[in-house]
Amino acid sequence: MEQNSGQMQEVLPVSGMYENWFLDYASYVILERAVPAIEDGFKPVQRRILHSMKEMDDGRYNKVANIIGQTMQYHPHGDASISDAIVNLGQKDLLIDTQGNWGDIRTGDGAAAPRYIEARLSKFALDVVFNPQTTEWQASYDGRKKEPVTLPVKFPLLLAQGVEGIAVGLSTKILPHNFCELIRASIDLLKGREVELYPDFPTGGMVDVTNYQQGRKGGKVRVRARIEEVDSKTLAIRDIPYGTTTTGLIESIIKANDAGKIKIKKVVDNTAKDVEILIHLEPKTSPDITIGALYAFTDCEVSISPNACVIVGDKPQFLGVDDILKINTEQTLDLLRRELEIKRAELLEKQLYSSLEKIFIENRIYRDIEECTTWEDVILTIDKGISPYKPQFYREITREDIIALTEIKIKRISKYDAFKADELMRKLAEELAETEHHLAHLVEFAIDYFKNLLAKYGKGRERKTEIRTFDTITATKVAANNQKLYINRKEGFIGFGLKKDEDVEFISDCSDIDDIVVFLRSGVFKVVKIAEKVFVGKDILHAEVFNKDDERRTFNMLYLDGESGITYAKRFQIGGITRDKEYDLTKGTKGSKVLYFTSNPNGEAELITVTLTPGCKAKVKVFDYDFTDLAIKGRSAQGNILTRYPVKSVKLKMAGVSTLGGLDIYYDPVIGRLNTDKRGYLLGTFTGEDTILALYKDGTYEMTNYDLANRYEPNDVIKLYKLTKNTIVSAIYFDGENQNYYAKRFQIETTSLGKKFSFLSDHPKSKLLAASADEQVQVKIHYVKADKKEETAVYDLDMLAEVRGWKALGNRLPYAKIKSVEI
């Protein structure tokens, strides 16, 4: 406090003012701009837009510019924010019926200027959003008008539309959910069942909701574009991930191509009514690996982190979508109850007035007032006339009720029809009884309300986004080989920038995100990140691209121990390592060195010839050694003693075969990938040139190798098999050309890998009913007889058709109509 002109004044520090003002500002942004209210799911600007549109509503379209002007009476901000908000609402295609160019969320094209586009409230909005009788009102910002505190929405609108907003110190991001699924979930909640909701995006695509966590903070969803393999040289994108645009997606693809992560020839955007982006591949580029690379390096896959923050009781709260749905469903129940109570009150009043009118006219009380000389006499005379009937009314008769009777016109009295009056009262009684019944059975009434919404507005709002489980794509496995690895053994450098140096040697193609494992003559090895030029140590023995997940790569080695002079043989696999750390494969003594070294992708064990020095005391100075006799151990194992005598040379005598046996390959039908982790079903044990046979629902088959990078679309695949010389494909199909059903069996005669062959006729109406490459196939055929009776027959397929060529028509089945076939 300080003395100033004899008065005491309070001194406020600047920090205190800043704290108070900032808190006020943060609260304003949170409550009045960025975060939606739980009651109706609207931010204030959206609520004011809809209220303004309701005020203007006459069934016809209004210029958006006019709607903006009307909204500015309630919204204390500029027209730009209102324009953006109304376009955002219109693009959600739920509350606003639009006309004109409103932009396209898929391509990122903006809407036309507000003066060129028009809008009106949709029938759905008029049905579920407004009811002035159940709306709580408040004064507008300038006090001239009234606006709703929240709108009485009888639907989980917040979850249907989704919302995104950034406030001060917090943000909200609620993903959109499917209209029909929300209604069914509300019905399930009313029936006491548990519900689980997953997002559904207007852009379609695929979503992995494994970590969705009901939209709570910390959850995550992965969204992918739908990519189809048109042919071996072309890919097509049909849907894009939510939050991206076709323009942005294409830019990310071009950027990844320029960076060498993928190899494409060109990208063509054919998007019109439907999304279609064609990607033309470079020659000899794998479509499967490219699809994986598109998901790994471009916006074909995006990760979205939801954060469901809403205003509950004037405070921001973090909830799950299940909590929001529960609150919205309970609110709908409460609003329906209030509407029924208002309707009941209105019906009781109508019933009361109709009864009063009937008594007033039929008992000719209106004649008794003819002799009254004062207004009070008139009121008392009418009151006296209706007194005997007062006990039948649900409330006391007031002076206002009597005054209303005096306002009945003579014309109405003269044409009064007692029968019609009784009929009206009967209908009012029935309607009142129905309303009372709904109030007594409110939950059933609410369920019927939701069912009616689903029947009335659910058509065309089916789920667009497919829920899938995605595989985890390792970037190094799908990155295009955009660099060449060179090595300078003498100087000890590796990298992709050594091409112009002297004494360099090309090792292999690689990508610029690969790790490289380097072995030195001293027996030391380490793993380093690829770069233009990396020093790893002089006298390099071997270098290659390192795959940490490769469990079959085996190294065979002979090394001399510098201290004892003994030569050891060892076979080892690398396992887990720390990048840039040196590991010693010998005993670590001074003078130790590697005498022989090979890297074997499938655990091969070769036969070598070892020659000892002429002057040594060994009786046998030349002998063969087979690595097959040596067990595979860890990299730190000492190894077995090969000889105690000095070694002059080691030469390869015979290439080895794998000692690891075949590779058990599994197919995971959920994500459409091969694996060795026992996910899905076992295809078999694969070695060498073994191949996979894939049968597809469109009546084609394909042979592929067993590369784990291969991709088989789960929705298209019937089943995968290991192809053998005894494999026979059995099928039942409808031939479109001659309108008959056939059974056929055939062996695979084609040899091309990665190419699909159709075993149906070329007619567009030909359709596969069932196919299998199992042994001893049995089929259950459900068919319709000539008298329209349905029957079922079971056959061994080898009894229906003999083995013929894959292009053969097969044997005709004696059925005019087959409803279904089960293997």
Secondary structure elements and pairings:
Layout: E1 2-4, E2 7-9, H1 14-34, H2 44-56, E3 62-63, H3 64-71, H4 79-91, E4 96-99, E5 118-121, H5 123-128, E6 136-139, E7 146-150, H6 157-161, E8 163-166, E9 171-174, H7 179-190, E10 206-208, E11 221-224, E12 226-231, E13 234-239, H8 246-258, E14 264-269, E15 277-281, H9 287-297, E16 301-304, E17 309-312, E18 315-318, H10 321-362, H11 365-368, H12 375-386, H13 399-406, H14 410-414, H15 418-440, H16 442-457, E19 466-467, H17 475-478, E20 483-488, E21 493-495, E22 505-510, E23 515-520, E24 524-529, E25 534-535, E26 540-546, E27 554-560, E28 567-573, E29 583-584, E30 593-600, E31 604-612, E32 622-626, E33 632-634, E34 640-643, E35 647-658, E36 663-668, E37 673-675, E38 681-686, E39 692-696, E40 700-704, E41 717-722, E42 729-735, E43 740-746, E44 756-758, E45 767-772, E46 778-784, E47 790-796, H18 797-800, E48 803-804, E49 811-812, E50 817-822
